[in-house]
Specification:
single chain; 174 residues; mainly alpha; 6 helices; 84% helix; elongated; binds fe (iii) ion; binds zinc ion
Length: 174
């Protein structure tokens, strides 16, 4: 009953710390990056703008590197690389799939692809940003640097998408 289970649950919760949160986040991102890597070809194929196709392809190559960097981080922490289902990225990618269907053949398809891709990048930016600060406060400077390396790529990918949208994609869709 309550009296027997609650204090135990609370005690278990109390043993969780920032390094557990970092580990959870690593598993989330290992799951997310693999899933993003698998989803990108569909977006690349659907895109009409050659610069958008190229930008997404380049970021897919970076995503493959990021998966390797995450594996290195697990190794550095003495853990086996393990993915954990993350509902957040699943939701973003599910929406992306239905938008590709809804806007198929329309003038706004590329805009919809960028709309979805930027949701992915912003999700990654928030996660890697948090994780980098955790690694820093935990004194794991090597891990913080590796996370910072990924974060830089995500920020650059987001910036590229913004300039494509502002440059011609949004106007072409309007
Ligand atoms: Fe990524
Ligand atoms: Zn999570
Ligand atoms: Fe990304």
């Amino acid at each position: 009953m309550d009296k027997a289970t609650k204090p135990a649950a609370r005690a278990a919760g109390q043993t969780m710390d920032l390094s557990d949160l970092l580990e959870h986040a690593l598993k989330d991102m290992y799951y997310a990056e693999k899933k993003i890597y698998k989803s990108l070809p569909k977006m690349i194929k659907a895109a009409n703008d050659p610069a958008l196709q190229e930008g997404l392809s380049a970021h897919r190559d970076e995503t493959a590197q990021q998966i390797e960097i995450l594996e290195e981080i697990f190794t550095t922490l003495g853990k086996r690389a393990k993915a954990e289902k993350c509902d957040a990225i699943d939701g973003i990618l599910e929406e992306s799939t239905s938008l590709l269907d809804d806007f198929k053949g329309s003038a706004a398809l590329d805009a919809a692809i960028i709309f979805s891709a930027q949701a992915v990048e912003h999700y990654e930016i928030t996660r890697y940003g948090s994780m980098q600060t955790y690694a820093q406060v935990l004194g794991m400077s090597e891990v913080a640097d590796m996370l910072g390396q990924i974060l830089k790529q995500e920020l650059a990918a987001d910036k590229t998408l913004t300039s494509l949208a502002k440059g011609r994609v949004n106007a072409a869709a309007a």
